[in-house]
Amino acid sequence: MIRACVIGFPIKHSRSPMIHGHWLKQFGIAGEYARVEVRPEELREFLGTLPERGLAGCNITLPHKEPACNYVQHLDDRGRRTGSINTVYVRDGQTFATSTDGEGFVENILWRLPSFSFSGKTALILGAGGTSRALIDEMLRRGADHVLLANRTPEKAEKIAKVFPGQVTALSLAHLDDALSCADLLVNATSAGIADAAKIVVPFARLKQDAVVTDVNYVPLVTPFLQEAAAHGHVVVPGLGMLLHQAVPGFELWFGKRPVVNDALYTLIARDIDPGYAG
Ligand SMILES: NC(=O)c1ccc[n+]([C@@H]2O[C@H](COP(=O)([O-])OP(=O)(O)OC[C@H]3O[C@@H](n4cnc5c(N)ncnc54)[C@H](OP(=O)(O)O)[C@@H]3O)[C@@H](O)[C@H]2O)c1
Q1: 223 within ligand 1 shell (Cβ under 6 A)
Q2: Ligand 1 centroid to residue 127 C-alpha, Å
Q3: Site to substitute for ligand 1 among 108, 190, 237, 261, most atoms within 8 A of C-beta
Q4: Omega into 249 within 30° of 0, i.e. cis?
Q5: What number does the ligand 1 atom closest to the CA of 239 have?
């Protein structure tokens, strides 16, 4: 029996077990994917004993994505550049780690908008947390020309901009007008509205007319940010697909088969979030 899990604190709301459970059943693999609560003070010990625990690996979610980089034996280039990991796998008793959030983000957009290309595009990202770093890294890898990065705390955006010299410009959330007028893609990568009641307010009337808008958050499935963008006539891409696509590489690393994200899986998870989801 091959075993993997997702670790975080808190962890009870994670939908990763539903996603991996769906694929395990689909492939007929005798595997298990569990949810394990790991407190920050337990993280080092947990990751240091994955092989002894009989685990092929794990996903890592909040608040461990950044500190976990220090507790694995091999960090790939993506993990090093983004300073954040979400997927750990065991090979020959050693732990290897990567970040698949950027890939999940990009694949979600291409899944929903197959004719979209990142090549030569300017993206405006709101929020400069661990997730934004992963998005920037992957968008630039896929040929994006420039990323404008706006954050409530500008110093955090400036710190990230230094990691990608000449390709990322840090901005303040309070001065978005110029950035909105030249962005081909607008991304909400803040956690605003998730842990608190604050909403991210954007003057959508300033946004370039054909800009695509997406949100990494997916509860509700169409966030207020996306609802407002759609009301202004923009094509929007909901964030749930990112969660599904970021899970693909991990499943393949642990269970040996590459799964496919399709409408049946999307509907399964979407109905868990909103039982009224009609497809
Ligand atoms: N769809 C997916 O598969 C997926 C994958 C990964 C993450 N996510 C989601 O992505 C979001 C960001 O994750 P993260 O790991 O990057 O989080 P993080 O490191 O905690 O960063 C949070 C960001 O949100 C900003 N923010 C929070 N509240 C705000 C407010 N009221 N107004 C303006 N900005 C605010 C923070 O600004 P300051 O720097 O000023 O505090 C920071 O830039 C989370 O909600 C997470 O659940 C989704």
Answers
A1: no
A2: 6
A3: 190
A4: no
A5: 1
- Identify whether residues 224 and 253 lie together within a single domain: no
65 is annotated as an active-site residue: yes
226 shares its domain with 245: no
Tens of pLDDT along the chain (279 residues) come to: 999 999 999 999 999 999 999 999 999 999 999 999 999 999 999 999 999 999 999 999 999 999 999 999 999 999 999 999 999 999 999 999 999 999 999 999 999 999 999 999 999 999 999 899 999 999 999 999 999 999 999 999 999 999 999 999 999 888 899 999 999 999 999 998 665 566 788 999 999 999 999 999 999 999 999 999 999 999 999 999 999 999 999 999 999 999 999 999 999 999 999 999 998
- Among the listed residues 65, 159, 208, 257, the single catalytic one is 65
At 52, list the tokens: 């002894």
Residue nearest to atom 13 of ligand 1 (CA): 131
Q: Do 135 and 221 belong together in one domain?
A: yes
Domain membership of residue 198 as a residue range: 102-238
pTM: 0.96
Of all protein residues, whose CA lies closest to atom 21 belonging to ligand 1? 129
Examine residue 279 and state whether it is found in any structural domain, yes or no.
no
Atom of ligand 1 nearest to the CA of 133: 16
Our answer on whether the CB atom of 218 is closer than 6 Å to any ligand 1 atom is yes
- Assign residue 142 the CATH number of its domain: 3.40.50.720
Among 126, 130, 240, 129, smallest CA distance to 185 is for: 126
3-state secondary structure of 165: coil
